[in-house]
């Protein structure tokens, strides 16, 4: 389990796993309520409908990386939805932070807000356990794709493990309908240090060398596993070059 109040652990989670933790949190915090959790949207939004004895509460959660903030448009839309659908109370939570305008509008509209630190603390108080850092989850999730040869999946896991080791403390995940990215940062490297991208048919790993993000590993689902054997060696060499500057 990660250390308590570790918002970074929540930010890095796969959307489906994060939605599962949101359900655990809602079940624990609103123990006697009926809880319905909608699937996460591509924008990182999760709606939780809570009801007890005729009282209806909407919990809206934004699963954002540290670099994104909830803006006032999200608050305005949520207030409109809450009014239109007759919710008695609305809570807006995020794994990041709110812009000043968003925080002000939420206060005016009597919307409870939980920023990343408050949400992580609330999860902890509700007894929700944070999983270990999930960089390798990016690779292990590919096991659901039967057409990826097992040796290639193992090679990808090894490559991601190297990236995790090189930048263990600051990773940000982005997931769309066509790809999943993990961005890696280090305090001693300006800008993005490395990136891993997985699509349905390819895997790419980039490292910042000589001030520029350069592709180091390229693997395809159709590639011969034997051709991937140099991936770890090439990535290790690129990481050493990046950190020597």
Automatic annotation (TrEMBL):
Q: Which GO terms describe its molecular function?
A: endonuclease activity; hydrolase activity
Domain Restriction endonuclease type IV Mrr, which positions? Answer: 10-122
Question: What Gene3D superfamilies would the database entry show?
Answer: 3.40.1350.10
Mind listing the UniProt keywords for this protein, alphabetically?
Answer: Endonuclease, Hydrolase, Nuclease
The record's annotation in InterPro entries points to: Restrct_endonuc-II-like (IPR011335), Restrct_endonuc_IV_Mrr (IPR007560), tRNA_endonuc-like_dom_sf (IPR011856)
Under Enzyme Commission nomenclature, its number is 3.1.21.-
Matches recorded under Pfam families:
Mrr_cat
- The kind of enzyme this is, by top-level EC class, is hydrolase
Entry protein name: Restriction endonuclease
What is the source species?
Halomarina ordinaria
Per the UniProt record, the lineage of the source organism begins with:
Archaea, Methanobacteriati, Methanobacteriota, Stenosarchaea group, Halobacteria
